[in-house]
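pls design
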């Protein structure tokens, strides 16, 4: 017979947790200052908002470079290898099963922290969306040097459009991500894990018939 129990597993290292919260702060500052630069509200003032946006953007770029280095030197890149195994089971769980109290089809493990849907999403972010956002931001920042860089024929309008579309894509991801953090066995379980590194996960346990009989006795 197979039963399930909750066990405490150390999933996230100090660096992973540091990177997660640092990135959250940086992205928040970038979104706020970016929206202010576009005139949606006044908080820091236009000039200060531009300067903060530029400095925070460069900080994010440097921090991202360290993250990429860490991923490849620790072997954590394996956590992001995409797979379709149980993909539809995960989609069904989040769209239907979770509301019926079903067990997650892909429990977290130290060597498999992300389910198939997360792997595809995080890989798309790290390998596509974030690099495009950073490159477009660098181009935007260095507009006055385009001629020196041999980019005089590049359209500022296109660069600006790519950058703002990327910003809204990241904002949409954050909304979904925040919601997903509430889908653990308690509403704060995933958030607590990203603070302490420890998370309670489901574990399937095989119990022999004779053991069950002894427990009943």
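designed seq:
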């Amino acid at each position: 017979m197979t039963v399930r129990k909750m066990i405490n597993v150390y999933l996230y290292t100090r660096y992973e947790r540091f990177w997660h919260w640092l990135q959250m702060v940086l992205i928040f500052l970038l979104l706020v200052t970016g929206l202010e630069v576009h005139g949606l509200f006044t908080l820091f003032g236009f000039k200060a908002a531009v300067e903060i946006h530029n400095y925070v953007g460069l900080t994010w770029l440097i921090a991202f470079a360290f993250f990429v280095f860490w991923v490849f030197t620790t072997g954590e890149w394996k956590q992001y290898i995409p797979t379709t195994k149980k993909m539809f089971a995960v989609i069904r769980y989040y769209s239907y099963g979770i509301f019926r109290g079903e067990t997650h089809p892909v429990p977290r493990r130290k060597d498999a922290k992300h389910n198939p849907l997360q792997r595809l999403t995080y890989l798309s972010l790290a390998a596509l969306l974030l690099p495009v956002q950073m490159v477009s931001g660098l181009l935007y920042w260095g507009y006055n040097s385009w001629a020196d860089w041999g980019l005089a024929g590049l359209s500022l309008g296109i660069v600006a459009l790519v950058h703002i579309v990327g910003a809204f894509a990241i904002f949409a991801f954050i909304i979904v991500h925040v919601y997903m953090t509430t889908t653990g066995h308690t509403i704060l379980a995933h958030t607590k894990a990203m603070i302490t590194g420890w998370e309670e996960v489901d574990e399937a346990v095989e119990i022999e018939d004779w053991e069950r009989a002894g427990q009943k006795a």
